């Protein structure tokens, strides 16, 4: 059984199948894509059946459907639950895509499409790894379950209730997730920490109508002035979040933790060059990996108000808007953080302006001890395929459901990522390096056989 | 010759004609409306011919056409040049219009449509006033010329060259313009001052791609953070513009000037109520009429960057944009002001971010001495129709071409406005009060006959 040969022989077919999935614009944030969500869910279910899973079910939820599949013919062996998501991020600004987001294209050994790496491409590796073992050996070395959701990019609102009500069905000894990244090409990493998340939207209102900036300019509040000065007040000059109590629950970095971060030998100059930046920016006194791995952040994801068209329009806008997300670490409480930010906004709004705040989804930060045997075996599998042992890292991103999965199912979450940090997740020209497509399937086979 | 009866008898017909003009979406700022611009110009030319003007010409320019018309059969009498514009402002946000902007509708004695008051409705009064006198008396009491442009809302880029090259054709003893407002219903005003204008667009760029706010958040510059803090730096806590040298050329308010402003008995509480504001906002130490009439301002007309769609998107945007206009007074130099703002922006941009500045159109402030006989006669005409003498006011708005017209043609500019300050110029639900539609035509007839 040479899986390298098997995957080489099936490479074209696998890529064509993955492209089929990537052509489905299953954007969970936009309600007009509801039918694409259904199509993507059914596609995944079909592929799981074709792979040879014994039972495959598409479960409706109050939101998007969850796909469950199982193959439980290895009595006495551990049970692995594979988690992934078939929904994707929105695609704007569309004009910055070199090829359309839902027309998958291979260039220079990379597969370009929305969802290529996050998470359709990575999820697909597990389906094909299981299929390969069943085709080559007619049985699996472990019991396997799949739980694939369609709301990860909108913070998984329906899955927690589904997990609670199906805890027995989903019970497992480890939760296997590929939705993170290698450190850099050829340097695998197993994520042992994820930041939490909380989100809010702000609207600032001034007069009951847009006003002429000549007749009224200088004499009335301008919703954009009020908004930008309010948003500016959220940070201090040192790049710290200036919201009272924001850092409560954030653990100070110990010398040991700083040493662990330093092991990554992260090259900040290389990052600057690849992003075309003169300098990085962030909270003073921390390195890039510390800032993103162990420090919280408050980011403006969108700001808009007034005239955006061609030319100029001499208007004083009556309203202006901002979308904000915070990434959380340690014991920061997402709801309490939202409350603190909201208090800050109300306390700092300019006179003559009113503010409304809508709080969105939230999730706590997650960590796991790297000495867990399920993680050590994952590091072994990487070593055999990549020739180098995986580092245990802390990721700046959030997969809000990981903390819930691990808690509800009382099982360690094994985050074996096969993406790369510069693959434009959530941005134009998202892509997946095919080297990791190939090695990913081999690593998963190795891991399952080692358990 | 009872013009009140004449206009009453023709009222329905006049309103139907004006609605025809208001249905043409002649937005000069948006290039896709080029053919609407042509249609509006031809419509005006046709109406001037029907009114009985001897010669009517549509002059092409490097931009939108200028309509010239003349009726010069009053030898020894003064010549009046009527200036107006047939282009209109953009209409967004469209969803805030109670009836569509280009489907004119009369409600509660007000005609609603984009351009109803600025300036199609006011310009139309002059055409119909001239037509009325010619129909009733077969001759005009003065020589009349019309010069109607289609680029006022984009700061009249082509007209100055047209004026220079046609100065003899356009020569006049007074320039008559209706593109301003009464003080309030029943209280006419003649504008003796207009603020100047200069405009610029800013783009802030950070990384060469949008980035995931999890993976990168807190460790890289965010174009929106850089933009909002830059925009905030343009004002101080007292509402003053914080750009070095911005106030050079601004005259201090003398006690006499403050007394003249006080004569308007402007009711700030009433303004607050009508705009739904808890408080007004502006430079400390000045009243609303002083702030808008005699003080400069820097206003954000549009700000945008990042995700604006439904839901949330955890992105760090690579770029963010702002549209800014300044209103100028006294001897402030528009070009020098743009240079100062640009210097401020470059000096205050956050590290890791780059800025590009594109300067737009500009115009100097304009003033005229209220004792000019052409203005005094205009005040007389208002008094006979409205029963109250017009006040001489300073308007916060800019009609950039007024200063140029007056200078190139060496003639006083008589700004007889018939709009009202709350008619939503440049905003959704622009309208024109029909009381001033009726009285406006009568006032113009009175004025022309008095010269």
From TrEMBL, chains A, B:
InterPro entries: Cyt/Met_Dipeptidase, Peptidase_M20, Peptidase_M20_dimer. GO terms for molecular function: metal ion binding; peptidase activity. The keyword Metal-binding applies. Pfam families: M20_dimer, Peptidase_M20. Keywords: Hydrolase, Metal-binding, Protease. GO terms for biological process: proteolysis. SUPFAM superfamilies: Zn-dependent exopeptidases. Residues 192-347 form the Peptidase M20 dimerisation domain. This is Dipeptidase. It comes from Paenibacillus anaericanus. The lineage of its organism: Bacteria, Bacillati, Bacillota, Bacilli, Bacillales.
